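residues and backbone:
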Amino acid sequence: MKKSSILFILILVTAIMQAQERKQPIPGKPPVVNIKKPQTFLLENGLKVMIVENHKLPKVTFNLTIDNPPFAEGEKKGVDELCSNLIGNGSSKISKEDFNEEIDFMGANISFSSNSAYGSSLSKFSKRTLELLAYGALDPNFTQEELEKEKAKAIEGLRSQEKSVSSIANRLVNALAYGKNHPSGEFMTEESISKITLEDIIKNYNTNFVPQNAYLAIVGDVKYEEIKPIVEQLFGSWKRTNTNKTIYPDPGNVATTQINFIDVPNAVQSEISLVNTYKLKMNDKDFFPAVIASYILGGGFNSYLNMNLREAHGWTYGASTNIGAGKYVTSIRSASAVKNNVTDSAVVEFIKEIKKIRTEKVTTEQLDNAKAGYIGRFVMKAEKPESVARYALNIETEDLPADFYENYIKTINAVTKEDVMNAANKYFLIDNSRIIIVGKGKEVIPGLEKLNIPIFYFDKYGNPVEKPVF
């Protein structure tokens, strides 16, 4: 035997012996994350300012957030979205062209919406960046010309989505789950957009862009004693306005599971969504168990739903579950787009996997992997300025304990298999779910009717209709 062959065999045997002796690495201690606490002050108009000094890099970010409760717009749905698009198109204190030119010169980034404003720049430009942000947010220049442009773009966008199965599904999932008169359920139409006037935009801004519900988070290479007087000068004149809070009844889940079907004859696949509504606050003891249960059900590649519908059956490119949380009523939605000829079979598998997580404890490996994923993402985000600002804002607006994020990792690690199952039973209400399907009725209804689940029919705008004649 040649020497080279003997050497190869020896190397191979050594590698096999080493592989056999290898042991699973022992997990290290959980990482320690240092979440910096903001220094705060309150302006007379109600604006709360939070400043976190971080001098590692010569950068600074500004996050202005207005924490208004949801509100419905009725027959003029779209006012708030158009208002978002119009804010930042110039100011009464500086033209749109000069505004954009200065931002480009500084290499800064500034953006606006109807309930927020964001800015970031090098710290040497921090004062001017904050000035421009204040000009755009507090002194917007709304014009009829810009409004007409935005209305035309909005209508064109709606027309382009007219035959999109996924767009119709996204619109109707909320409309059916919350109700079309609820802030989370109403949607824009060409008719509602055409009714919007410039006066509606200005009224929306004056009513809702108010300081008493606002928070300004400043994170980065700034000094508290230097930035505080600048904030007072720029935002101190922002006038407080009395606002009315409308209380909306919480939408209820259906008494028994039902299918809500929307016929789209050109659909080549079916959009399936299983939806429940509920309230889940971030300070609830169920919060972490619920989000971990959601992740195991449909939050990752190895989730129950994805491994079933995609890997085992090959019916879809992916299946997922998204869970909401916050002060107001929210929802959990498990969804996928599948081939027409397996729509009924996919519904059966959705129900099977949701029942599984409600009745069978997750494995140690599944629980550990879910925890590791959340902890890893938290650690990666914790040092980013936008995350620090978000954490500070959440503590204020979500009524969280001051040490919520300091205990984040410990709280996740404390979640047990029993906690996950209990949360799944509390929030994944499969016996009271709307199964919303948008698809080609001619091909999928015969199979769905064999499931013995009540079927109710709706048009593309969420109005009840009789069963179509296919």
